[in-house]
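Structure ticket #2291
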Amino acid sequence: MASFASLLCAALTQAETLFDYQLQPVQVAEGTWVVPGVPEDFSRSNGGNIVNIGFIETSAGVVLIDTGPSLRYAQQLEAAVARVTSQPIVAAIITHHHPDHWFGNQHFKTLPIYALPETLGAMVNEGDNFADNLYRMSGDWMRSTEPTPANTALADNTLSIGDHTFQLIKLKGHTVADLAVLDTNTGVLFAGDLAFDQRAPTTPHADIDTWLASLDSLGDIDYRLLVPGHGQPAPDDRAIQFTRHYLLWLQNLLRQSAQVGDVPTDVINKPIPAAFQEASLVREELSRSVIHLYPGLEANTLSTHKQGGYN
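Resolution: structure written out below.
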């Protein structure tokens, strides 16, 4: 009969196999890699592996761009980094406060973890609620994960680590604070979730007009490669344009629907334009956007009609 210890060891080995994110870094520039996420929402099958994580090898060590959705992910991310470079991880830069981008912080909490002050505040205020949702959606992939906010607020417009200088582009619109990071050594721009490619943008904290203005700012940057938060890295502006066209369609749809008095279920079931039908999660994100954004538009439309004498 097998001993309890051997059975326990076998069970632990099986659990580690079951919860393997299978992270595969892809080199996109000299000393620069992206660990791609799948074009899906959080689930018990993907464990929240839905976001592009970047890392850059500098003379002082490796800098992460975001840390992923869980403690398990961050542990496996460190192992994935070690497969392609002997340099240790020395710092992380967090692009914004959505949890798929920073719930790996716990594993790197002894290192400098940089974020904009507004992002840090949002992590503190919303971290526990995010954790509740992620545990519900991703299950045991989240085991032992605790929300661990960034520990170093960014004040300057540049950050030098080793022989690399990172330009910090402070924007907003997707959330209250969205950081794009340009590695001036390679020209790689990490756009965070300001840019999506062939995956419908998420809007739980969005201000669409502000987001569109931030996309204009991204387009003005001289970069060689743009890495979106979700989707394929590319040397052109396809992610910026996809995000812009989607947001304009969404904004017009919601405004026109509010003008004619459509109820939310009507809006959710509106036709999806051909330009977005092949993108991931369009219907799902439309439903979520109606929940997030439509009540305010309805209220504004009703107020405008009353002021104009329509009641």
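Closing remark: The two ends are 80 Å apart (CA to CA).
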